[in-house]
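Q: Could you predict the 3D structure of Transcriptional regulator?
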Amino acid sequence: MKKSERLNDMMLFLNDKNAFQLTDIMLKYGVSRSTAIRDIKSLEEIGMPIYSERGRNGHYKVLRNRLLSPIVFNVDEMFALYFSMLTLKAYETTPFHLSIGKLKTKFERCLSAEKIEMLRKTENVFSLGYIKHYNNCEFLDIILQFTLEEKACQINYDKNGTEKTYIVQFYNISSSYGQWYVTSYNFDTKRMQVFRCDRILALKENDTFKAKKLEDIKKVADSFYDKEDVNTFEVEITSNGVDLFFKENYPSMKLQQEQERNFIRGFYHKGEERFIINYLLNYGDNIIAIKPNSLKEMLLNELDTLKKHLQNLSS
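A: Sure. Here are the predicted structure tokens for Transcriptional regulator:
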């Protein structure tokens, strides 16, 4: 381990300690007594509030009445953090109240002019692919708050143009292909249900039902797919279809390859037929075969409806 890496790790190691001895450093990092003393002196020089107390065991204390100095990142870590931060630009809404511009400014204030210039040059020639999130999710921060606080709540939800009311407890927030989703425990059905966050019209705390511990909801979530109304499917696709699968897929489906043939195998719940049909439409002529036949018929009916719609469009 290089000295710079060791000092970085040492700051983390000492961060929650009020006192330590030289032997703690020597055993932790496998260094000699003289190296441990030099490392402690280096930490003091970069601002870590350490002071020594006399004694043959080399006793040290860490002042708790001031902030520890910032952790020092190497160049690769700095670039990784910077460009990870920039991916937040893809989100119309995040659970955090922040400005990417202000966040960049604060980040750059911790760097030398040379490092800032290097970052800006890299930003001009290097970009990360991401899916743009266009939909505004008004209650995303409250959803996160209620999830962490394990609160039951009432939501008003836009389901296919009709406003419906649900009593739920949020369990997991996820981002997938341009949308925010929240997996929730439905107190009426006693089952898990997934909601698109941008379609939540109103949200308030509800004390009619006793909120559950997240670990208890996890047990329900683990058995979410072990239900009678789950429909399994198998779709064989071309090699070009494999690329499409990796661009967009969901936890309820897997790609399996057998004897140079490619299969999407998965399942969907009752009421999710339109979702799976719209998903499969993206594959077009990359579909080779579909099972069961009922799914194929639904796909054909959807194509027929789309054809009629296009024919009725005014020229």
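Q: Anything worth pointing out?
A: The first strand starts at residue 19 and ends at 21.
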